[in-house]
């Protein structure tokens, strides 16, 4: 039995005429043009102002945040909506062509409005406006053909408007992100250099940093594959713990300023370390606010330069834990700190100093130290405990013993230097 002849009507109908170039069910250009005469398009233009006003009222009723906009911002939204209605008429003339008229509707959005309204809120506004148009624009039709063509055109135009809005806001987000990154770099650089003043605090406030929040500086090496994006990922981690963070990559060093203290047991600190490359990470002391964070930065950077002297240093290491390495590296701050916390408190008791040095010289052997000093071993233990109470350093601990040794040595060198008369010229 021969195959049946195909319906001749199918030969003259292309799939794109039925479903559109991208698969959407839209009327073919010729159909739209024929079904929507110039008189109807003029009516749409004529009612554009009223339609925009009523659409704004609909937004006020359905979107709770819309009432928070000031009068100028609401007027800007109304201008966008009215422009979109007018451009709808122009778009109908060539629905398969360039959507430049649609994009123009959102290119008139003022920059401050784009920053005030999020992309999600914009999508909701587009949805409400297009639902309003879908309901009322078809009432301008004079017959079923016009009604069908106008309804389908509104649906497709709404889709184009949505994509146009997304493009505009994506561009604004990129610009804002680039500006914020530059601002963030300026703030961190100012903290590292020690620049203070209202400009630093105002810039930090623009980046959502609370001016009275405590600040801690942490430094290390950035991941080689994330030199640019590491700041963003670090921000996201901080937000998970309701913290603020500022960061910048300076050469081979990632400098981050974190809101609040960083304790060894904090889960936040563990997650924060994932943004640094393998290798040493040093944490400075916590300061009362961002204006005084330069002290934390100085300590952290000095610790990072000196941490190489302690091969088995913990990760992260606190700048306080690296005092002897920093002092040996010529860090005046570390030398002064060791003098204030160890040398000076022990300077009033030569007996304690001699006991510590004898104990260290004996390799930590209490009995040997006692014989060297001609005292009972329990007396040695008593004196070492007193030293620990005064300095916070236990001579029986290898690390504390090293700290005490460096501190006492530097103290002797300092006193000898002060007591040596200057040579005559």
UniProtKB/TrEMBL annotation:
Protein family (similarity comment): Belongs to the CdaR family.
Family matches, as PANTHER family: CARBOHYDRATE DIACID REGULATOR, PUCR FAMILY TRANSCRIPTIONAL REGULATOR
Native organism: Gordonia cholesterolivorans
Residue ranges constituting the PucR C-terminal helix-turn-helix domain according to the UniProt record: 352-409
Protein name, entry field: Helix-turn-helix domain-containing protein
Annotated TM spans: none
InterPro entries reported in the protein's UniProt record: CdaR-like_regulators, CdaR_GGDEF, PucR_C-HTH_dom, PucR_C-HTH_sf, RsbRD_N_dom
Domain RsbT co-antagonist protein RsbRD N-terminal: 50-180
One Pfam family linked to the record: GGDEF_2
Domain (CdaR GGDEF-like) ranges: 194-306
């Amino acid at each position: 039995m021969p195959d049946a002849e195909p319906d001749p009507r199918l030969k003259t109908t292309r799939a794109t005429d039925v479903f559109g170039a991208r698969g959407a069910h839209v009327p073919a250009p010729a159909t739209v043009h024929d079904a929507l005469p110039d008189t109807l398009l003029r009516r749409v233009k004529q009612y554009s102002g009223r339609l925009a006003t009523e659409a704004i009222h609909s937004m006020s009723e359905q979107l709770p945040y819309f009432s928070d906009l000031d009068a100028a911002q609401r007027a800007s939204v109304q201008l966008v909506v009215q422009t979109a209605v007018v451009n709808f008429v122009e778009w109908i003339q060539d629905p398969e062509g360039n959507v430049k008229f649609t994009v123009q509707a959102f290119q008139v959005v003022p920059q401050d409005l784009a920053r005030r309204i999020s992309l999600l809120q914009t999508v909701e506004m587009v949805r409400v406006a297009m639902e309003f148009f879908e309901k009322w624009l078809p009432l301008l039709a004079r017959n079923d053909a016009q009604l069908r063509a106008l309804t389908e055109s509104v649906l497709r135009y709404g889709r184009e408007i949505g994509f146009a809005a997304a493009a505009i806001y994506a561009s604004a987000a990129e610009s804002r992100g680039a500006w914020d990154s530059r601002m963030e770099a300026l703030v961190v650089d100012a903290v590292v250099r020690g620049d203070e003043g209202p400009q630093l605090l105002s810039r930090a406030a623009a980046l959502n940093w609370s001016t009275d929040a405590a600040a801690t500086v942490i430094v290390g090496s950035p991941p080689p594959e994330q030199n640019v994006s590491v700041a963003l990922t670090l921000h996201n981690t901080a937000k998970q713990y309701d913290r603020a963070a500022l960061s910048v990559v300076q050469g081979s060093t990632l400098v981050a300023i974190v809101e609040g203290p960083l304790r060894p047991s904090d889960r936040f600190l563990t997650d924060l370390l994932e943004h640094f490359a393998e290798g040493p990470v040093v944490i400075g002391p916590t300061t009362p606010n961002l204006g005084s964070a330069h002290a934390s930065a100085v300590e952290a950077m000095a610790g990072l330069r000196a941490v190489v002297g302690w091969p088995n240093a913990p990760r992260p290491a606190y700048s306080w834990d690296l005092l002897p390495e920093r002092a040996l590296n010529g860090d005046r701050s570390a030398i002064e700190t060791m003098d204030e916390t160890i040398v000076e408190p022990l300077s009033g008791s030569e007996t304690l100093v001699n006991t510590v040095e004898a104990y260290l010289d004996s390799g930590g052997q209490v009995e040997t130290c006692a014989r060297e000093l001609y005292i009972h071993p329990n007396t040695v233990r008593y004196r070492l405990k007193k030293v620990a109470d005064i300095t916070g350093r236990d001579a029986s601990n290898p690390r504390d013993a090293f700290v005490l040794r460096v501190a006492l040595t530097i103290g002797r060198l300092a006193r000898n230097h002060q007591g040596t008369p200057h040579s005559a010229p």
